[in-house]
Design a protein that fits this description.
The complex is a heterodimer of chains A (about 110) and B (about 280). Chain A has about 110 residues and is mainly beta. In chain A, strands 2-8-7-4-5 form a five-stranded mixed sheet, with no helix packed on it. In chain A, strands 1-3-6 form a three-stranded antiparallel sheet, with no helix packed on it. In chain A, strand 7 and strand 8 form a beta hairpin. The radius of gyration of chain A is 16 Å and the shape is elongated. The two termini of chain B are about 40 Å apart. Chain B has about 280 residues and is of the alpha+beta class. A three-stranded mixed sheet of chain B has the order 10-9-11. Chain B has a two-stranded antiparallel ribbon with strand order 1-2. A two-stranded antiparallel ribbon of chain B has the order 3-4. Chain B has ten helices and eleven strands. Helix content of chain B is about 40%, strand content about 10%. The longest helix of chain B is centred in the N-terminal third of the chain and has 20 residues. The radius of gyration of chain B is 20 Å and the shape is globular. The chains are: A mainly beta (about 110), B alpha+beta (about 280). The interface between A and B is small, with 11 and 7 residues.
């Protein structure tokens, strides 16, 4: 597992039914591009978050492919419609096979 | 003059006019997390009354998007490093097996610290910066290795100390035993350095608000340090910024942690007395 990886998500605690809310996510990750060399001239292998998804009650909201040029600690912000109370599930996929998840509940009211 | 150069000079005029219009500091208020009110503009401290009426945080000199990032901890990338320092705060280190928290309690209880540093420390008989005190703790109380003065661990820890003091006014003492160091810092501030023969005052006192090429000159206040800079995506220690400034005058710089920079930090800190502690701030 890449070191120092920590997902963070900010979702409002509640929303009106059918309201569009803004979701902010950030994962601390070094996003090593695979283009750099270490002091001895060896290429530092690529190690990035390559995919991010957000689901709401099992239905996909966004599915994003991330590329090597994306900078450290990728921050993603997007809007989502909330038709009913439920749970957002956030998933980050690491190059090394690790998967990081976080969930947030949202109420109607 | 042919058509091309005419067009070019028209463009140049437009650019100059545009930059002139941009150059005023923003008329804006900073409230972090819809909770912490930050004083970004206030009456200048008494010792500055001859040279300026109002002191302003560097936040007012940055663009709208950059300013917005500081309004919410989630949007402020500097807070990632504060979280890291919070872990360090609670982790034992060194031969004594003590963490910062073992002596000092919760980091949130440390809000009285950042606003008054650098200050004269009686026990040490010298003016000390927060970094020097942290290393003193590490060496003498924890039996741990000293951190590099502007290294990652150190700047993260100073960011944690600043973050718990946000909203409190900077209140650096300039009289009593600190006065001689303060005078030394003041002299450095007004001394021209380097091939370009620039003093701190030439840019940050005489020309704040003006553009220096593409950059908007601020008053050089340090209430927002350590600062997360978008250009290098990490926290930057104040004395690293001093070093960068002196380097830009094409001078041999003082080293971070040197007596000269400690004196300068005391003096520049005192120029911001009354502004809120704002670190970790977001700058370009």
């Amino acid at each position: 597992m890449a070191s120092g990886v920590k997902p963070r998500v900010k979702v409002p605690k509640s929303a009106a039914a059918g309201e569009s809310i803004t979701i902010k996510t950030l994962i601390s990750h070094k996003m090593e591009s695979g283009q750099r060399k270490d002091a001895d001239g060896n290429v530092i292998p690529r190690s990035i978050i390559n995919r991010f998804t957000c689901d709401f009650n099992g239905q996909n909201v966004v599915d994003i492919t991330l590329q090597a040029a994306i900078s450290t600690n990728p921050y993603l912000e997007f809007d989502a419609l909330v038709p009913e109370a439920g749970t957002f599930t956030f998933t980050w996929y690491d190059d090394d096979g690790d998967v990081y998840t976080d969930t947030k509940d949202i109420a109607i009211g | 003059m042919n058509k091309f150069t005419k067009g070019l000079s028209a463009c140049m005029t437009a650019i100059i006019v545009a930059s002139g219009a941009m150059a005023e500091p923003a008329d804006d208020n900073l409230v972090i997390n819809e909770d912490i009110e930050i004083v970004t503009r206030t009456a200048a401290p008494a010792h500055l009354s001859d040279v300026m009426d109002e002191v302003m945080s560097g936040w007012l000199f940055r663009g709208e998007e950059t300013r917005a990032m500081e309004r919410d901890d989630f949007d402020n990338p500097g807070m990632i490093f504060v979280e890291k320092a919070e872990e360090t705060w609670n982790t034992a280190d060194g031969t004594e097996g003590k963490s910062c928290a073992d002596c000092h309690g919760a980091s949130s209880d440390m809000s009285a610290v950042r606003p008054v540093y650098p200050k004269y420390v009686e026990a040490a008989g010298e003016v000390r910066t927060l970094e020097m005190q942290i290393n003193d703790c590490r060496e003498n109380r924890m039996g741990a290795e000293k951190w590099k003065y502007t290294g990652g661990d150190m700047v993260n820890m100073t960011a944690l100390m600043a973050s718990v003091s946000r909203g409190l006014p900077v209140n650096v003492a300039i009289d009593g035993p600190a006065q001689s160091t303060w005078e030394q810092g003041k002299e450095i501030y007004y001394t021209r350095f380097g091939q370009l023969e620039l003093s701190c005052a030439n840019c940050h006192e005489d020309n704040y608000g003006n553009m220096i090429r593409a950059d908007h000159l601020s008053q050089g206040q340090i209430n927002g340090f350590p600062a997360y800079r978008l250009k290098n995506s990490k926290l930057n220690a104040v004395q690293d910024r001093f070093k960068g400034c002196v380097r830009d005058t094409r001078a041999e710089t003082f080293a971070p942690g040197s007596p000269e920079f400690v004196a300068l930090e005391l003096y520049v800190g005192s120029r911001g007395n009354g502004l809120s502690v704002e670190g970790p701030s977001v700058r370009n």
